[in-house]
Amino acid sequence: MKKFFQNTPINRWLFFLFICFFFGGTLYVSTRFVNKLKLEEKQKVESYAKALEILSGTDFVDSHVQEFLFKIVENNTSIPVILVDQNFEILETKNVPSQISDNDKKIAKYLKNLRKSHEAIEIILPTGKNYIYYENSDLLNQLRYYPLILICLISLFIFFSYWYFKTLRETEKSYLWAGMAKETAHQIGTPLSSLMGWIELLKLEEIDQTSVKEIEKDVYRLNQIAERFSKIGSSTELKPSNVVDVSRRTMEYLRNRLSRNIEFKFHATDDEILLNLSEPLFSWVLENLMKNAADAMENKGLIGLYLTDYEDTVVISLQDTGPGIPKKLQKKIFEPGFTTKKRGWGLGLSLAKRIIEDYHKGKIYIEHSSKEKGTEFTIVLKK
């Protein structure tokens, strides 16, 4: 049962076919019902015409037969009919709205429309021929639109249900992400405090202080990220920051920690580009992308980070010379749990997408990816 509700191509096709069959079946049944009712109304008008023909063309009719014929005539209370002579002069109207029948121009136009929409029913009398023209009853006219109204209502219901469950699912995801982030920050917090204490002790020892400073940078950075992750789910405070400095510092930080066989390139169109950012989270996104690039290139190649300042947006492009991402996987890489690595939870790119799109109201996507040119990720942030 669980597999049936999964969002797979087969299930999507099955749902599409179900909708097609449902709508097609509704139209077929409704159209058949309308056509049947239309035929019945035609038969009623023919009976009405035959009754008039007998009553008008025979001098003597048995009283019981006459009563029956009058009932046929009187029972037509819904189908508009107009009786005309062979010169198309109107002799009688029945069930025609008074605002039409009382106006010569309107009744003439109404008759003209009836002659176009329905074939006349002929009445043969001793004095000549008369004709009956008729129109569908109001009920039949309304039923003709019933399938369309039904389909519209069902479509609205399906759309609303889809929107509701999608929104509910996204809300549940948000709570899950917030819970995971806070729990991760909480679990990291205790060993981080211990590490910071050990760093202070190392400073007192006669060892290379350069290494101690680098360790201190790592712990401080990790502490920043843990602190920010603990606030995910609450209101995000974005502060005006120079995105050029933040991006450059992130690249320099990784330059000393990734393989020396990786070449780093950085370029920005301006020295200062101010954006409202959460620096620790934005820096973490860039760090995650660059680490993925290094893994894809097997720690040998080129990583380029380029910032372009436009009037309303800033475009950040991160390029690598790796083997690229297969096209069939490109739509899945931002999904939670998806990973091509033997180790890892597959949450990095998914979290990066949430940080850029949910917290910074920007966009992140794959610009292109191929074996020949590597992969390029693009981040677009509004000013």
Automatic annotation (TrEMBL):
Signal peptide: none annotated. It catalyses: ATP + protein L-histidine = ADP + protein N-phospho-L-histidine. This is histidine kinase. CDD domains: HisKA. The chain crosses the membrane at residues 12-30, 145-165. The keyword Translocase does not apply. It comes from the Bacteria. GO terms for molecular function: ATP binding; phosphorelay sensor kinase activity. It holds the Pfam family HisKA. SMART domains: HATPase_c. InterPro entries: HATPase_C_sf (IPR036890), HATPase_dom (IPR003594), His_kinase_dom (IPR005467), HisK_dim/P_dom (IPR003661), Sig_transdc_His_kin-like_C (IPR004358). It is an enzyme of class 2 (transferase). Keywords: ATP-binding, Kinase, Membrane, Nucleotide-binding, Phosphoprotein, Transferase, Transmembrane, Transmembrane helix, Two-component regulatory system. Residues 183-383 form the Histidine kinase domain. It comes from Weeksella virosa (strain ATCC 43766 / DSM 16922 / JCM 21250 / CCUG 30538 / CDC 9751 / IAM 14551 / NBRC 16016 / NCTC 11634 / CL345/78). Its EC number is 2.7.13.3.
